[in-house]
Structures are given as structure tokens and as C-alpha cells.
Amino acid sequence: MVKIEFLGPIARASIDIEASSLKDVALYLQQDSELTIWLDKSAIAVNDIMVCDLNHTLKDGDKISLLPPVCGG
pLDDT (tens digit, 9 = 90+) per residue, 16-55? Predict the structure, then answer.
């Protein structure tokens, strides 16, 4: 199992899913129409390290963070 956390304005509780790669996570999240607007805009971190490759292999216990763009001032 991996944990997916949604940060900032996504404002969702963390979920645990079975996934062996970030591609599996993306396919799972694409099933939720409210999340699809965030998927192309957000950065992804695995265990607090930014990752760009959907083929990135995951292992049991990994934490995936969905990091939407934010504005500040």
C-alpha cells in the first residue's frame, strides 16, 4: 500500500491504495472527475522528493504527495 496525500486547495483526506508505479496512481486518480483538473497542474513528490517520471517504481509504505500550484504574496 502507498499513501496519497492531497495538499493545498485540493483539500482531501489522504488515501491508501495498492500501486506499483506512479502510473498506477495516476490511473486511479483519473477515475475521480473532481481530481482530474489537478492532475496536469500538480507536481508529484514521493517521500518528499520531486518526481516527474510516471514509470517511477513505488514500494510498500511510500508517501505520494500531490502538490497543486499556489499563489502567495
Answer: 999 999 999 999 999 999 999 999 899 999 999 999 999 9
| DSSP letter (8 states) at residue 26 | H
Domain 2-67 in this protein, CATH class: alpha beta
Spatial distance between the Cα atoms of 17 and 27, rounded to a whole number of angstroms = 12
Specify the amino acid at residue 16.
Answer: D
Torsion sign over Cα 29, 31, 32, 36: positive
Q: What are the structural domain ranges in the chain?
A: 2-67
Q: How many CA atoms lie within 13 A of 21 on its CB side?
A: 9
pLDDT of res. 18: 98
Buried b (16+ CB within 10 A) or exposed e, 28-37: ebeeeeebee
Q: What is this structure's pTM?
A: 0.90
